[in-house]
Write a structure and sequence with these properties.
mainly alpha, two-stranded antiparallel ribbon, 10 helices, 2 strands
């Protein structure tokens, strides 16, 4: 069993989905308390909270402070290792690509705060502005290409040629993964907002903030696709 893709919060997430299905919970129904869920599933409260947070972002549940956790929609999402229309199934799943991006691009964003030139920062600012225009115009293909170029610019600016080579060799897979989140048209502007947050961290030369913003962006992009994954805990 893969220790990354099947980390404890991910197991809890799948177990909650199974619980909703098997026990017939419907929209508006309250789930057991978080304390009871943690005991029933045999996971820590922290792992449970992370699983519930992912399910909330996917629209499966609604967490209402002081009231409880309520089912929001039927659990009919795609499996975390699949996505509709994914053309590279024989090479890697969307989950694989999002996890790879999480690992590479978070580290690259942290490096780039030290090595990013003024010209590269200007190019990223232009890219973010152009993406906003394309999203407002509803041209999601163009927005996905700008998304790809934004991430490639950060990898290039990091100065790590090995990571840039991985992106270049798998450019089609990376680009396709950047198209997937736009299936949620009503949430398309979130990509632009997250890019702005990454850009602000880079402009401040804050390595920790840039890495955190990139990690959040990649995980949120996966969630917009219907894919939930849990990163390994850091010490």
């Amino acid at each position: 069993m893969n220790s990354i893709s099947r980390a404890v919060p991910e197991v809890a997430l799948q177990a909650i989905r199974q619980l909703i299905n098997e026990q017939g919970f419907g929209p508006g129904d309250a789930l057991p308390s978080q304390r009871d869920l943690a005991v029933q599933l045999g996971v820590s409260r922290a792992s449970l909270r992370e699983a519930l947070s992912s399910l909330s972002a996917l629209g499966v549940i609604s967490i209402q402070p002081g009231k409880g956790v309520f089912v929001q929609a039927p659990v009919d999402l795609p499996r975390s290792d699949a996505a509709p229309g994914w053309p590279f199934a024989t090479q890697a799943s969307p989950l694989d690509i999002f996890q790879l991006r999480y690992a590479l691009e978070g580290f690259a964003a942290g490096l780039a705060t030290v090595t990013l030139s003024t010209d590269e920062l200007d190019a990223l600012e232009d890219n973010v502005a152009a993406m906003r225009n394309e999203l407002k115009a509803g041209d999601f293909e163009a927005a996905a290409r700008l998304d790809f170029e934004f991430h490639r610019c950060i990898l290039r600016a990091s100065g790590n040629q090995a990571m840039l080579s991985i992106l270049s060799a798998s450019a089609d897979l990376f680009l396709e993964s950047q198209k997937l989140p736009f299936i949620r048209v009503e949430r398309a502007m979130e990509t632009w907002q997250e890019h702005r947050k990454i850009l602000r961290a880079l402009a401040r030369r804050s390595s920790a903030a840039a890495q955190k913003a990139m990690h959040e962006h990649v995980r949120n992009a996966a969630l917009r696709t219907g894919i939930a994954f849990v990163a390994p805990a850091t010490s």
